[in-house]
Amino acid sequence: MRYSALSIFLNGLRGNTAWKSAWRAPALKPHYDVIIVGGGGHGLATAYYLAKEFGIRNVAVLEKSYIGSGNVGRNTTIIRSNYLLPGNNPFYELSMKLWEGLEQDLNFNAMVSQRGVLNLFHSDAQCDAYTRRGNAMRLHGVDADLLDREQVREKLPFLNFENARFPIQGGLLQQRGGTVRHDGVAWGYARGADSMGVDIIQECEVTGIRRGNGKVIGVETSRGFVGCGKLALAVAGNSSQVAAMADMRLPIESHVLQAFVSEGLKPFIDCVVTFGAGHFYVSQSDKGGLVFGGDMDGYNSYAQRGNLATVEHVIEAGKAMIPALSRVRVLRSWGGIMDMSMDGSPIIDRTSIDNLYLNAGWCYGGFKATPASGFCFAHLIARNHAHAVTREMRLDRFERGYLIDEKGQGAQPNLH
Ligand SMILES: Cc1cc2nc3c(=O)[nH]c(=O)nc-3n(C[C@H](O)[C@H](O)[C@H](O)COP(=O)(O)OP(=O)(O)OC[C@H]3O[C@@H](n4cnc5c(N)ncnc54)[C@H](O)[C@@H]3O)c2cc1C
Fold first, then answer.
1. What is the SS3 assignment for 3-20?
2. Range of the domain at 93
3. Ligand 1 center to 238 CA (angstroms)
């Protein structure tokens, strides 16, 4: 069913009784050409592009809960392609280009809003680092503008310019960055993939990976065994656990990251803004709530909730950036499990088992990557070699020493 102004009008005339479910609830088949484990953004996007770009439609997405229950429905919705390193930049820019055409492509309103992402800087050294990053972006054909203090003040006058412990000197702006409604992305990809014949199986947990003759032959699930030609893992925060089912040990730690939403306020922040002297990022949703977050909780965990010390830490950073926030009430907060890699960059690669493919290590920046990740992972699965923009996102880069360490933090997963 295509969505359009006319379909809304006609369905309105029929009392909204003729709408069809956005995707089916199919029975599990005994065998698929490709099984994707994980019905998050990346798994669903992979299924969509496998069907659309590569004509592979005998595909199942197995999700242990409901789609969107993982990080794709828990993130702070920020998209951007303001990366420094050549191993990252072309990939995230491909993602940005796919975001720009996504709603037309999916025929689904994912509320893509290119309202701009502004990273504040507070010292000469930070100004140099952001200038360098902006230049690298421009050399890759990505938009970047360096704003001085007065330009930032004109845009966001409520920031703490006076008596600030961390005086704002300026900011790096990517105007094409912004926000996207996170669960709308999962729903849009699910609907698109389903319409091309992909089976989306919810409440179906993968509990084991069965092998024969050195290859994967299928998966054990909470609904029984399912055979497959190829198996693709896209389980984000559960990557280490699921890979262990194939006796693989990944260079990944799982950590909790929290997000917060305030009471609804009149519109006053028209972009995403990040604090450079601490870790804090905020945007304002269309309903008026401030959507914000900061550092991870800092310990390994598989719990989708965080603790109060980090709540205090994040809100302190927020108040240092916007003092007026001290009067605002927080309505809700939640946590998600982040698959933190050792260098802070993702892995899209084949594994030592021929027909087993891995998509993981998204850290806390994987939402913005969703379209390119799905596109490139589908390319890898269909063609058996990496897409040009993911050539450096190899699993063996950690043993070969070719890290993509965007922040220069070294093997400190909680700091990336
Ligand atoms: C609080 C928070 C804020 C964030 N903010 C941003 C942001 O602003 N911008 C950004 O770019 N990124 C952000 N991220 C990161 C981003 O959300 C993730 O990197 C990304 O969503 C991960 O990919 P995914 O969507 O496929 O993961 P998920 O949605 O987590 O999908 C993985 C799925 O696998 C399923 N699964 C796990 N194990 C099994 C199993 N054994 N069998 C079957 N299914 C299984 C899970 O149930 C889950 O649904 C944030 C994350 C959090 C938690």
1. CCHHHHHHHHHCCCCCCC
2. 21-81+84-107+182-250+343-415
3. 9
- Chain segment 126-183, per-residue pLDDT in tens: 999 999 999 999 999 999 999 999 999 999 999 999 877 899 999 999 999 999 999 9
Distance from the CA of 14 to the center of ligand 1, in angstroms?
Answer: 38
pLDDT at 1: 83
The residue whose CA is least distant from atom 51 of ligand 1 is 75
What's the CA-to-centroid distance between 69 and ligand 1, angstroms?
A: 8
Which residues have CB under 8 Å from 149's CB, separation 6+?
161, 168, 169, 170
- Alpha-carbon distances of 135 from 82, 92, 140, 355, 364, rounded to whole Å: 10, 16, 9, 40, 24
Which amino acids bring their CB within 6 angstroms of ligand 1? 37-43, 62-65, 69-72, 74-78, 205-206, 234-238, 242, 257-259, 293, 336, 362, 364-368
Residue 320 lies in a domain: no
| CATH code: domain of residue 390 | 3.50.50.60
* pLDDT above 80 (res 262): yes
Q: What percentage of the chain has pLDDT greater than the value 70? A: 100
Q: How far is the CA of 82 from the centre of ligand 1 (A)?
A: 21
Q: Specify if 63 maps to a domain.
A: yes
